[in-house]
Amino acid sequence: MQVLPAAPSVAGLTAVVTGGSRGLGLLMARQLLVRGCDVVLLARDAAELDRAVGTLGGARERVLRGVVCDVRDGAAVRECFDEIARHHGRLDIVLANAGIIQVGPAEALGAEGFRDAMDAIFRGALNTALAALPHLRRSPAGGRLALIGSVGGLLAVPHLLPYSCAKSAVAALAEGLHAEESAHGVTVTGVHPGLMRTGSHLHARFGGDRRREYAWFQALAGAPVLSMNAERAAERIVSAVQRRRTRIVLTPAARLGAAAHGVAPVFTTRLLSAVTRLLPRDGGSGTAEGLRIEAEEQPPARRLRGVLGVLNERAAGRFNQRG
């Protein structure tokens, strides 16, 4: 068995996590705290940030604070990173995690859905990277930047096409910046998780046959074999950034899917076409958030869904998804 060398310590470094108020972002922030970093959480919702800081209190041995910032606003992001660097005297690690999830047929989500995904996911990652890099280049420890993509950015996932398109752009950005920033001593890690039990289904938006779309997504995202424990995922991501890895793909299913698509893209596309026939086809216009769909469910369906996605429901309660 191969034994990896000890990862370089990140104790005393200053780290920023965008989308850090819940789910994966919250868990990555916890990992950074226990490794001795000062951590700043960025998110749009002040109340969520307050709850996140309270949730992480037990893991806190260093400075922890939340800052309201919308990563879609480039000027606001630059001001935010400038303030963080001034306040802490340095900026060493940035994890660009903010984004949204939309589930449904491309026609139902429409052009607006694609624009929203590109704004929140790709433009958010781009704004974060461009604002952070000047500070990361000055890091005495050598800056580290991680862009959180998805296996959906390595192969197109039906009924998640806006998400896949935006994450594909994030993947290209991570690879390109890794090459360009190496001369400045900054490493850029592309992170591509598969399904994780974060409870994110509650904040995803569903279009088309919204209840059926919610049902399959919530069930698969909590399936033990297909999805990954989110705390384990956060530990592996932060370790990869700490070790300055170029790329990490999480979950066996995600690695298999990405490898199959790279070797046999035509076969993979045909297989996905067959899978798509099992997904909902019809539905109304507009989208609804998972929390709203869950609230409107009748008791029998709600109980069945709870049984199918019990692990994901537990994660939602633990990782600040319910508020």
From TrEMBL:
InterPro entries: NAD(P)-bd_dom_sf, Sc_DH/Rdtase_CS, SDR_fam. The keyword Membrane does not apply. The keyword Oxidoreductase applies. It holds the Pfam family adh_short. Keywords: Oxidoreductase. Belongs to the short-chain dehydrogenases/reductases (SDR) family. This is Ketoacyl reductase.
